[in-house]
Design a protein that fits this description.
The structure is a single chain. This protein has about 325 residues and is an all-alpha fold. The protein is built from 13 helices and no strands. Helix 7 runs antiparallel to helix 10. It is globular, with a radius of gyration of 20 Å. The two termini are about 30 Å apart.
Length: about 325
């Protein structure tokens, strides 16, 4: 099947999932139900697009399809920041801090952390991405340990606040944050489309081939890493961490599209990611009655799929 036809089918499925989520069992009070469901759909489209694009770009520059940007430590840093806010300020003070301020602080600190890693490491190591991954895993483990330490010390009532932020939730996203996130993500995606998209097919061939073909490999990789850091930070600060969503949709997209061309893979992964979130949230609300967070289901399915990929790659290397 032609790649453009596959993209069209993915768009139809995603749009169908959005309409089903919006109108199913909406009752007669549409003025109350539809705006609230519309905000959830808006949030899921934003997060789905950001997570999918950042994962595909990250896997391209690392040339590894079982990695996601969370391996650098974004999820661990987000949980550390949220726990530290509660630990230092307390529940009462934190409840008076606006959602916009919390969002901006989280994004700025996560992006600042990523830039420190990139600038400090890549400047002196000739864009050694694998050394960056190793350092990110170590720092992520440090953040997780510090988070656990603070969770043990804080008041049980404060811990419930932290626990509510451990998993992504689309049920109470602030509309002001949606507008701000849309503007920021729109600018980032526009920058990627204009300045970086034309290099990604060549970058996927590896550093040696890209340099021989005249691409400024180090410069492009640094810009892509910054784009990835911005997208992941905004998506995580908006709804919370969803660790395995990117891994799941990116690899399913590769198997579905069967092409290396990013002009097909990137939009297909974004549509698939949006459809996954819409369908998953519909199941959570209509079948499970909010008993299980969507992030838990995605992480369960994504974790099983991650082990499948590991076994598959192991068999490939054993031949």
């Amino acid at each position: 099947m032609d790649s453009r036809l596959k993209l069209l089918l993915l768009f139809v499925v995603m749009a169908g999932a959005a309409l089903l989520f919006l109108f199913y069992d909406a009752g007669s009070d549409w003025g109350y139900v539809l705006p609230r469901r519309g905000e959830k759909i808006w949030a899921m489209l934003l997060v789905g697009a950001g997570i999918a694009l950042s994962t595909v770009l990250f896997q391209t520059i690392t040339n590894n399809r079982i990695l996601t940007p969370s391996i650098i430590g974004f999820d661990s840093l987000y949980m550390f920041l949220q726990t530290a806010f509660v630990f230092v300020l307390g529940q009462r003070v934190l409840s008076e801090v606006s959602e916009e301020l919390n969002f901006l602080l989280s994004v700025l600190l996560m992006v600042g952390f990523a830039l420190l890693l990139f600038l400090f490491l890549l400047r002196y190591n000739d864009s050694n991405v694998y050394l960056l991954l190793l350092l990110g895993m170590i720092v992520g483990t440090l953040f997780t340990s510090m988070t656990t330490f603070m969770e043990v010390l804080i008041d049980p009532n404060d811990f419930t606040i932290v626990q509510s932020r451990m998993f992504a939730s689309f049920n109470s996203v602030d509309s002001g944050l949606l507008v701000l996130s849309t503007v920021l993500m729109g600018l980032i995606i526009l920058y990627y489309s204009v300045s970086l998209a034309k290099y990604m097919d060549v970058i996927s061939l590896g550093k040696a081939h890209a340099v021989n073909l005249g691409v400024n490999y180090n410069g492009v990789v640094r810009q892509v890493l910054i784009v990835v850091a911005l997208l992941v930070s905004i998506a995580t600060a908006l709804v919370g961490p969803i660790t395995f969503l990117g891994l799941l949709v990116a690899n399913v997209t590769y198997q579905l599209m069967k092409t290396y061309k990013h002009r097909y893979v990137v939009p297909a992964s974004m549509l698939l990611s949006m459809g996954t979130l819409l369908g998953g949230q519909f199941i959570v609300e209509q079948l499970f009655s909010f008993a299980t967070p969507l992030a838990v289901i995605i992480n369960l399915v994504g974790g099983i799929y991650f082990f499948y990929l590991l076994l598959k790659e192991n068999r490939a290397w054993s031949k």
